[in-house]
Amino acid sequence: MRQPSVSARRVAAVSVSLVVAAGAVACGPKDDDAKSTGGDSRPHKGGTLNVLNAQPQQDFDPARLYTSGGGNVPSLVFRTLTTRNRENGAAGAEVVPDLATDTGRPGKDATVWTYTLKEGLKYEDGTPITSADVKYGIERSFAPELSGGAPYLRDWLVGAAGYQGPYKDKKGLAAIETPDARTIVFHLNKPEGEFPYLATQTQFTPVPKAKDTGTRYEEHPVSSGPYKVVKNENDGEHLVLERNPHWSAATDAERKAYPDRIDVRSGLDSSVINQRLSASQGPDAAAVTTDTNLGPAELAKVSGDKALAARVGAGHFGYTNYLAFNPKVKPFDDIKVRQAVAYAIDRSSVVNAAGGSALAEPATTFLPNQKSFGHTPYDLFPAGTSGDPAKARELLKQAGHPDGITVTLTHSNSKDFETSPEIATAVQDALKKAGITVRLQGLEKNDYSDKTQNVKTEPGLFLAHWGADWPSGGPFLAPIFDGRQIVADGANFNSGQLDDTSVNDEIDAINKLTDLGAAAARWGALDKKIGQQALTVPLFHPVYKRLYGKDVKNIVISDWTGVLDISQVAVK
């Protein structure tokens, strides 16, 4: 797990469903299978979809991608064992089969997971995709020169901790077995009921060993999806995808693949992207963005134009912005002081600083307010919409600070709104009413990360944010509150340095559950239990508002990514 790139908006992960249809080959979906767009026409095959992004689509190699980094673009080329359900809203937070026939079959208390590949799967050159290719794709993600992907497999697979990849260790990982060309078996160190979610990560992309070119593989990765790479300039600055003629729609119910061509241009200024999408002239009429939100001023302009407002996609992604405490730094070693800060927070002013209610929703729970995370509503320190300074002063008095306290709030100087000076100032103003004088310490982005993610330098109070690698409470709560994930020498995200045996044991117990609904309920209850320790103050959950061109049809926005799914769109 890692904290998401703010500018990329941590657009997460990957997910599929359907029965196998052997051997069929198709270049795109049939028009009569298309979803209705709600307009006077249905989506059709053909045309070019243009993608305008701020962040380059760098390291286009399934071993190096952290799935969030490229929005939806990687899933057009890289298929995985499982993927996200490509539906609107909450239904899109479900994990479904992709290359596999199901989401996995657990054994031995979820320490063994078995998958069977669908029949008729082929690469862009027409050769069959095998279980050995999936195994090899995973193994090469361990190579130091291909680092960058999600770290879970190193921790979860038996004997994988010291593995250095197939270039140095020809034996491979014994924890992954391939008894035949369509079967793959994973042996885990401990029960992991959410392994089907992990199998959506790009490391589970099959890679034919004979075509592996190491660090140059990103220049022309072999496609298992509906599109293949025909151009990759300046490490993803300009990426062009065209149809993979051997992709079979019969084995892929999720990706609609309507356009003939996808043209991705990155490194653009965010304001320019929104201007071009707004004007929607020429090729920009058939354009979308996977990483650029509308800002408050832009949103106000768009909202006043009915035609433009109709071209705004709104979505929610599992993401929380919060105040983090380090209880090892005075006065935050006293829970009453932490509670006082929680009561003093004026969430309405924080939301306004984050762009207003159209772009941010007030939060009183650490888990995002979505069913898949197990969200359980609670407000342990009710401050109303504008704070309760009287209650905060009372708690400070009980803590031995009748005249108030002076503290330092560390934040980033970056204009990304989550940890920005504007958010910090809103917190400062609210706490002042409760007798808490806040000195602001603004740091440049790298310095901010280095300071707040190091247990030796972590400040007592700072702005933080977290997004999940998949829509579940597990990758949300464990990295922040599991005591065994405290990192003494490296990037540490357990800011409260909580090491509570009852919390750790409950995390282990939930991880054994393969009933994801039952697990979600337990994650929600655990969130509330941890919240009683006042180690964080949830502030808000972001809302994503993004423009798309006037010729873009079939808009699907799921609660897995929170943004338009380009595997579903069609263009005129």
In short, what is this structure?
This protein has 14 helices and 20 strands. The chain has 572 residues and is an alpha+beta fold.
Explain what this protein looks like in three dimensions.
Strands 8-9-10-1-11 form a five-stranded mixed beta sheet, with no helix packed on it. It has two domains: 31-263 and 550-571, Periplasmic binding protein-like II (D-Maltodextrin-Binding Protein, domain 2), CATH 3.40.190.10; 319-544, Roll (Dipeptide-binding Protein, domain 3). Mean pLDDT is 90; it is low at 1-40. It has 572 residues and is α+β, with helices and mostly antiparallel strands. The chain has helices at residues 131-140, 152-156, 195-198, 270-279, 296-303, 306-309, 335-344, 347-353, 389-398, 421-432, 445-452, 474-481, 501-511, 516-531; strands spanning 48-52, 82-84, 95-97, 105-107, 112-116, 176-180, 183-187, 227-233, 238-243, 261-265, 287-288, 312-316, 319-325, 360-362, 405-412, 436-443, 461-467, 536-547, 552-553, 570-571. β15 (405-412), α10 (421-432) and β16 form a beta-alpha-beta unit.
